Amino acid sequence: MTTTPKPVHFLLLLYVCLKTLVLAQDENQFIYNGFRGANLHLDGLAQIHPDGLLQLTNTSEKQSGHAFYQLPIKFNDSLPQALSFSTNFVFIMVPENTANGHGIAFTISPSTNFTGAFTTDFFGLLNSTNNGLASNHLLAIELDNNENEQFNDIDNNHVGIDVNNLTSIDSATASYYSSREGKNTTLTLVSGNPIQVWIDYDGAENLLNVTLAPIPSPKPNRPLLSTPINLAPILLDSMYVGFSSSTGAAATNHYILGWSFNKSGTSQSIEISKLPSLPHQRKSRGKPGLPEEKVLIDWVIENWKQGAILETSDPRLRGEYLKEEMELVLKLGLFCSHPNAAVRPSMRQVVQYLDGDALFPNDILLDITGIGTLGVRNEASPEFVVSFPSSVLKGFHDSMSSSLLHSGR
Questions:
Q1: Mean pLDDT of the residues in the chain
Q2: pLDDT at 201 over 80
Q3: Degrees, nearest 5: CA angle 241-245-248
Q4: What ranges do the domains of the chain cover?
Q5: Which is nearest to 244 in space by CA: 336, 121, 343, 349?
Q6: Residue 336, number of CB atoms within 10 A of its CB
Q7: Is the pTM of the predicted complex or chain greater than 0.85?
């Protein structure tokens, strides 16, 4: 019987350890389900909270923040497929008031030094002198919540592909394709709710796809943008990947909750359940002297009129509810806030509506002029998200046989 000499055992063990270390430190792919201990280069307003939440900007005006992966990514060589990459991330935008500013840009850049870059509509990436120069070698996917005529923006809620220039080569109003409904549904970027973005570039096909969806929806099978583009002249051998964000006269809290990147294949899926939560913020943004609850009511009503009442649900729920039940709870909240006390439902009726034992009177809510303070065009901040599901669930738990937000009736 022969035995393997001990030196061979040692070499095998060393090889396994080194191989494991190389895979763990592969600079061409990574995933962050939260950013606690992340290897990122931060500057400006960017910071990582103790729970792993990456904040790019806060409510400071005309400021910027950057967060880039510390190591450069190897992109360009003789093979077209070497330019391919895939990334996905989850973001949340929470405005300081009803005005927004200005957005987030996923960026591939030859440097992490953005000294001299303007804030506001320039996203902290470029300035009026270098904007449009081929020497920038810059690719940015902008999530823009401000309409700027200088850059031919299509509206104040769009996604754009920028190449060396803040004037997008392609853009579209933020939306996602729902296979179940068979149509595109508009997404409000500054909603206070988490949204996931997938960016995929096929170097062999010269095709860049950008896809959006609200959490926890899966990746839609139709991208929002599908743009033919050859990135070979843009991407250098060594590039940095990350995020840039800026504020203007109006400030917005810009957050990244999770991020996955892969240079050699499809990026790993982010584990939504492991993502950090937003810090608790409940500060009045309404007009002086205007009761906070009335501003909240108007905000819910406006979203309902636009067919987006679910945008006012509590982002801390991460969309983990039945849409029909959430819509019922939100409408019930409006019903209970009717200015005419005689119209408001009794507690018995509320329980009947929630249990499905009585048909909800939508016709009363259709008389929208009788609810809220619609003469005031000052929407509440999405920080005032409606938290009815958790509070109602707690209050009615003892009197109901099942949860409001169960998996099905």
A1: 78
A2: yes
A3: 160
A4: 29-274, 292-396
A5: 121
A6: 14
A7: no
Instruction: State the virtual CA torsion across 259, 261, 267, 269 in degrees, nearest 10.
Output: -10
Give pLDDT tens digits for 170-200: 999 999 998 878 889 999 999 889 999 999 9
**How many angstroms from the chain centroid is the CA of residue 29?**
21
Please give the Cα distance from 188 to 145 (Å, whole number): 9
- For 60, residues 6+ apart whose C-beta sits below 8 A from its C-beta are 45, 247, 251
**CATH fold for domain 29-274:** Jelly Rolls (2.60.120)
Q: What is the per-residue pLDDT across 309-349, written as a single tens digit (0 to 9) for each?
A: 887 777 667 677 788 888 888 888 888 877 666 677 888 88
CA nearest neighbour of 194 among 92, 117, 272: 92
Tell me whether residue 93 is exposed, middle or buried, using C-beta atoms within 10 angstroms of its C-beta: 0 to 12, 13 to 18, 19 or more: buried
Strands 207-214 and 64-69, by their bridges, are unpaired
Contact 188, 157 (CB under 8 A): yes
State percent of the chain over pLDDT 90: 42
In angstroms, rounded to a whole number, what is the distance separating the alpha carbons of residues 203 and 96?
40
The tens digit of pLDDT for each residue in 125-175 reads 988 898 989 999 999 999 998 888 888 888 989 999 999 999 999 999 999
